[in-house]
Amino acid sequence: MERRSFLRKAGAGVVAGAAVGLAACGKKEESAPAAAAAAAAPAVPAAPAVHVGPPEVKWRITSSYPKSLDTIHASTDLMMQRLRELTDGKFDVRVFPAGEIVPGLQALDAVQQGSVEACHTSSYYYVGKDKTFAFGCTMPFGLNARQMTAWVLNGGGQELLDEFYANYNVVSFMGGNTGAQMGGWFRKPIASLDDVKGMKMRIAGLGGEVLARMGAVPQQIAAGDIYASLEKGTIDAAEWIAPYDDEKLGFYKVAPYYYYPGWWEPGAMIHFFVNKDAWAKLPKAYQIAFRVASQEVHNGILAAYDDKNPLALARLLTNGVKLQSFSKEILQRAHKVTFDMYNEEAAKNPAWAKIFAAWDKYRKSANAWFSVAETPLDAFMQSAR
Question: Which domain holds residue 337?
Fold first, then answer.
């Protein structure tokens, strides 16, 4: 009994002494019994990995439109609100109206240069860089709103446009459509081709070049400056969008003749342009959120205009606006001049030629279908009212 007690005490002393000795000498190698004991010990589970979600991202987006155009500008605010909802508030984009960061017609330049991450604009504002920019917005006597969306989404238009836009360091997303626009406000009647000659008109995109070839003098003027130019007589006419927005800008007070149809804008698409580098750095989940939100805005803008324009036109007519249609003579001449211009550009501009070939083929096919189903039914219902 005493022996066993002694051995226990002695063994404990040996072990303790060995531990002290190893510690004093600097342990270099673990004893076999200790290693065996360690191997037999139950494994301690590793701490679970902490999942870190996408980081907070702050962007700035500049618009080509003033706040007064509540359908277009407010839709940008709604999109950014939607982005915050889809990303739990982590993707925060601040919207700046035209003029706060850069003038409205320089929005794309700011994105291209990386001054801001994105913009909301109409690509045909930039045909001075290359006429090919018009394909992303609208073309005289081109696709209507539904046809334009179909071409971009399903007809190969998106791929063709992004190949072109890549040269300007941006990627594009559909951001609305105004539908067919009006022919604009005129200080005096425009009844014949002779009345077009010498006429100074605010008009954007390729419609301005067509009118120039018909003898007019096109002017590129931002929305906020149109009214004053009409009032002072600096210009004789101006086109903008359609009754709802035109009414808000008050053009009818200084140019009472309201013409239709806006043959140069049968379905004007608006775009969100994003800087390529900023887009590449964006987390995948945020890229998906941006695509979803932009598509919602795209659908919402056209629906809003289809809802608001009829009532706005009725109000304008009660205010003495003189609604006029362009003469057949003017429309036929404009159509011929337009397609002459298209073919001339195709002969000298490879970027234009590539998109035009696909776009024109799609246009002819779409119009053939609409002439069978859509147009005859619309014409009958409108005549039967």
Answer: 184-266+313-349
